[in-house]
Amino acid sequence: MRKFHVRKGDTVKVITGEFKGREAKIVAVLPAKSRVVLEGVSSGRMRTLRKTRKNPNGGMVERPVSVHVSNVKKVEAVANTVASKKRVDTKKEDKGKVEKNA
Questions:
Q1: Is the pTM of this model over 0.85?
Q2: Within a domain: residue 91?
Q3: pLDDT tens, 50-91?
Q4: Count of structural domains within the chain
Q5: Which of 11, 62, 75, 82 is the most exposed place for a label (fewest CB within 10 A)?
Q6: What DSSP string describes 44-58?
Q7: Running DSSP on this structure, what letter comes out for residue 60?
Q8: Which of 9, 10, 28 is nearest to 67 (CA)?
Q9: For residues 22 and 13, is the Cβ–Cβ distance under 8 A?
């Protein structure tokens, strides 16, 4: 099982690729493919479905977007202002304590 820097429910920003600069919430993590499924990023990509009883016309349907884990970074909201975001870095000190820096 792989360990990633993001989890389901985290708010992330896409740092590279087709959806660069957009912020979204993680709906699912796919560890086998090293990808995360994002909510709030309209893909513009559609998939055709054949005619069924549920969908008698068939046609194009939107799908959620999956992005490689290396193409997203975690974004944490600042407590005082909702509009500003900051990047969170962690580093270990000598005695094993973890310090979070903005």
A1: no
A2: no
A3: 888 887 887 877 777 889 999 999 987 544 444 455 566 666
A4: 1
A5: 82
A6: --EEEE---SSSTT-
A7: E
A8: 28
A9: yes
Quick check: is 27 in a domain? yes
Coil/strand/helix, residue 28? strand
Domain with 78, as residue range(s), is 11-83
Do β-strands 35-39 and 65-68 pair in parallel, antiparallel, or remain unpaired?
antiparallel
Q: Per this entry, what is the length of the chain?
A: 102
- Whether the CB-CB separation of 38 and 94 falls below 8 Å is answered with no
The answer to whether residue 18 is domain-embedded is: yes
Q: Is residue 89 part of a domain?
A: no
3-state helix, strand, coil split of the chain in percent (to 5) is: 5, 45, 55
- Which CATH number do you get for residue 66? 2.30.30.30
* Residue range 21-41, pLDDT digits in tens: 989 899 999 999 999 999 877
- According to DSSP, the residues that pair with 92 across neighbouring strands are 98
